[in-house]
């Protein structure tokens, strides 16, 4: 209720104001994945003020100063004016919760000191994940297990990953998570290339579409030692593939089973994905190279793994199209 009064205190008008809250018009959405129970510290560069929709035109004093406010008072959000012509950043410091919590908040950007109307509203999602560090070798399967803790009710769950070609889970399909119990989720990581990357793994209740657990796998992968290198020349632009052969000698005195894999299955296929040979015997590996439509060079790795999928040897084939 708003009352307008004269000097004597007598009201001359009374307004009944009804306020109806409306959702934000979101200009940008940011989504961050971060280890649980840690602080996310981020600096986001603001675009030049004159490029923002709704920015005032023809400012008499040149560049206006920008102000930011966050919808969550427990989040540190600030920006500093760095001088004319200098870029301006928004600094965020957010406390992450336990996995699989998702924190949602808004940041409003203003160009007036009275914070009357924002010229931009940004929406943020912070996914808190359980961090798992994995050190592995390219082409070799690294196995580990994750602990699943049941909730108060029985659940039908399934695991989903951001890199299904590099991460396999067991059980693979839908399985039962018993209430208040503990069981293991077995995963196998086989990266296609060396380097560091993040792989996301979510356990989802398939009946109620709820997130039960989330993991952030920090994978550090190194290249295996190359024992042999080959160089072949193939025609470019041809419609047919090319067949080649290389030999492998079993260095052990006993009979062994080996598995073959490559980092470029789109360019190379094997006649057989596995073979078994006696001690000291020689096996001929049949290679089928896919046709290439353009000239160039590719380095293809051939991984020869043992029965436990541990890397015994790696060959490098340099293909010149």
TrEMBL record:
Lineage start: Eukaryota, Metazoa, Chordata, Craniata, Vertebrata
NPHP4 Ig-like domain sequence ranges: 30-127, 138-222, 227-321
InterPro entries noted in UniProt: Ig_NPHP4_2nd (IPR058688), Ig_NPHP4_3rd (IPR058686), Ig_NPHP4_4th (IPR058685), NPHP4 (IPR029775)
GO BP field: negative regulation of canonical Wnt signaling pathway; protein localization to ciliary transition zone
Name listed for the protein in its UniProt record: Nephrocystin-4
Pfam families: Ig_NPH4_3rd, Ig_NPHP4_2nd, Ig_NPHP4_4th
Species per Swiss-Prot/TrEMBL record: Struthio camelus australis
CC terms in the record's Gene Ontology section: ciliary basal body; ciliary base; ciliary transition zone; non-motile cilium
């Amino acid at each position: 209720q708003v009352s307008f009064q004269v000097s004597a205190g007598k009201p001359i008008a009374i307004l009944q104001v009804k306020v109806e809250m409306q959702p934000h018009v979101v200009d940008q959405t940011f989504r961050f994945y971060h280890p649980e129970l840690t602080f996310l510290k981020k600096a986001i560069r603001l675009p030049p003020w004159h490029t923002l929709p709704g920015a005032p035109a023809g400012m008499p004093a040149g560049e206006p100063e920008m102000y930011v406010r966050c919808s969550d008072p427990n989040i540190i959000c600030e920006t500093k004016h760095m001088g004319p012509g200098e870029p301006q950043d928004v600094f965020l410091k957010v406390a992450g919760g336990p996995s699989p919590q998702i924190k949602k908040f808004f940041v409003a950007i203003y160009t007036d000191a009275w914070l009357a109307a924002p010229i931009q509203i940004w929406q943020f999602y912070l996914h808190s994940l359980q961090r798992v560090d994995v050190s592995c070798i390219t082409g070799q399967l690294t196995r580990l297990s994750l602990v699943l803790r049941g909730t108060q009710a029985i659940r039908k769950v399934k695991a989903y990953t951001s890199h299904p070609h590099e991460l396999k889970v067991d059980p693979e399909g839908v399985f039962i998570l018993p209430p208040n119990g503990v069981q293991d989720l077995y995963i196998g990581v086989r990266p296609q290339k060396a380097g560091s990357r993040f792989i996301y793994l979510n356990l989802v209740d398939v009946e109620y579409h709820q997130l039960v657990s989330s993991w952030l796998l920090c994978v550090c992968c190194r290249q295996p030692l190359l024992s042999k290198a080959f160089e072949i020349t193939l025609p470019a632009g041809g419609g047919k593939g090319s067949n080649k052969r290389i030999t492998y000698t079993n260095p052990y005195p006993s009979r062994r089973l080996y598995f073959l894999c490559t980092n470029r299955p789109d360019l190379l296929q094997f006649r057989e994905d596995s073979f078994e040979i006696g001690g000291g015997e020689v096996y001929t590996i049949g290679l089928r190279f896919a046709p290439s439509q353009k000239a160039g060079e590719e380095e293809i790795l051939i991984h020869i793994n043992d029965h436990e999928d541990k890397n015994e040897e790696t060959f490098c084939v340099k293909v010149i199209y």
